[in-house]
From TrEMBL:
Domain of life the protein comes from: Bacteria
An example molecular function term from Gene Ontology annotations: protein-disulfide reductase activity
Name of protein: Thioredoxin domain-containing protein
Range of residues in the leader sequence: 1-19
InterPro entries from the UniProt entry: Thioredoxin-like_sf, Thioredoxin_domain
SUPFAM superfamilies: Thioredoxin-like (SSF52833)
Annotated ranges, domain Thioredoxin: 8-148
This protein's record includes keyword Signal: yes
Keywords: Signal
PROSITE patterns assigned: THIOREDOXIN_2
Length: 396
């Protein structure tokens, strides 16, 4: 009997340690969670996930086990999780309009949505989102009421847009229109104005990006270096696609010089993708072959998804026929992607599609069958697409 009691105590201790090392999700129904929320005055934290969601699994293994996150969420919330495609989770997903995964809801004891956020994020950002859920100035019902009552202070509108971006895009757009009318130069040079620019400057066609570009020296002096670089890089990246589309070679080359000055391997990969995009749109088929061969043997030689993307991108627009130079080069890129990673649905699907165009039936069927097998790990929509791809391959 003593041994049994000791074993039970040890088991309980292990479970306790596990709870301390991870967000403690309770295995209870939604009604029970609401009852606990009413009794404790805490909000419910609800993780809306699916069994196939890769970012959901990443969050489980990399964020939900971080000490600061664990301490805050286990102290401040009633934590529950529901598969949005199974059991009670289906009704919850429908009621709260969960359409992307993961989606995180913060709900009070009456079932009212108080805060909402979504997608994969790092631990510090996730913790900040949880903290905001408990701050009245970020809570959805209060923000909606204040907006309807006519609050148009820029600082308020910034919070309103930040929250509504994850709730309702129509409401967020109303906030953006209101902010555009009151965000004058003095506000844009304030700390909250910089937050607006970080969030809303998208291209040189909008007022926030133009203001940033016209006042770069000022913002560089007041912003964190990493924030300034991130916004500058974002706007130049956006502009690069315009340069490519319009054939502005001098501007495009200047953009490459900018990206070559950035640190890290990702900048080199981005330059490679820009070069492929330029030559794919503005170059001859022979130039496309030469440049993409250089890239696939160099900076992209281990980048299966990037190679597959280039192949898919330009095979779609290539002239049909087995003699087409660009299409045959897309086949080379797609085949290399599959050799690097045969267990990726997109890689196999891209190769199968290109082989169909090139009338390579045996290879098309093989790749399409591999894609169909991998589709079992994806959504029902992807499975249907894989079925159609296999049918096309077999009909050659």
């Amino acid at each position: 009997m003593k041994k049994i009691i000791t074993a039970l105590l040890l088991f309980v201790g292990i479970l306790s340690l596990r709870a301390q090392d991870h967000i403690a999700f309770q295995k209870i129904g939604f009604e029970d969670a609401k009852k606990q929320a009413k009794e404790t005055g805490k909000l419910i934290f609800l993780d809306g996930y699916t069994s196939w969601c890769v970012p959901c699994k990443w969050m489980e293994g990399n964020v939900f086990n971080q000490s600061q996150v664990v301490q805050y969420f286990n102290t401040k919330f009633i934590n529950v999780k529901f598969d949005s495609e199974a059991g009670e989770g289906i009704a919850i997903a429908k009621n709260y309009q969960i359409r992307s995964f993961p989606t995180y809801l913060f709900i009070n004891g009456d079932g009212e949505l108080i805060y909402r956020t979504q997608s994969k994020m790092e631990a510090n950002e996730f913790l900040e989102q949880g903290q905001r859920a408990n701050m009245r100035e970020y809570q959805i019902p209060l923000l909606k009421a204040a907006f309807l009552a006519g609050d148009r202070q820029p600082n308020f509108l910034l919070r309103y847009i930040l929250v509504m971006n994850n709730v309702d895009q129509a409401l967020a757009e109303e906030g953006r229109k209101a902010l555009a009318g009151v965000a004058n130069d003095n506000f844009l040079k304030s700390p909250d104005g910089w937050e607006v620019i970080k969030m809303m400057a998208r291209s040189d066609q909008d007022k926030y990006a133009r203001f940033f570009l016209e006042n770069k020296a000022y913002f560089k002096s007041i912003a964190k270096p990493e924030d300034f670089e991130a916004k500058e890089t974002y706007l130049i990246r956006y502009a690069m696609y315009g340069f490519i589309r319009d054939g502005k070679k001098a501007d495009f080359d200047a953009g490459l010089v900018y990206f070559s000055g950035l640190k890290g391997a990702e900048a080199k990969i981005e330059i490679a993708l820009f070069r492929a995009e330029w030559v794919g749109i503005q170059g001859t088929p022979e130039e496309f072959v030469r440049v993409t061969n250089e890239l696939r043997k160099g900076v992209l030689k281990e980048e299966d998804q990037r190679l597959s993307f280039i192949a898919r991108r330009f095979a779609k627009d290539a002239e049909k026929g087995v003699k087409n130079i660009k299409l045959r080069q897309c086949y080379v890129l797609a085949k290399q992607a599959v050799q690097l990673n045969p267990n990726d649905y997109s890689n196999q699907g891209t190769l199968a599609d290109i082989c169909i165009q090139l009338k390579k039936k045996k290879e098309a069927v093989k790749a399409a069958e591999a894609a169909r097998a991998l589709a079992e790990l994806e959504t029902s929509k992807i499975i249907k697409l894989a079925d159609a791809l296999l049918a096309r391959a077999k009909s050659i």
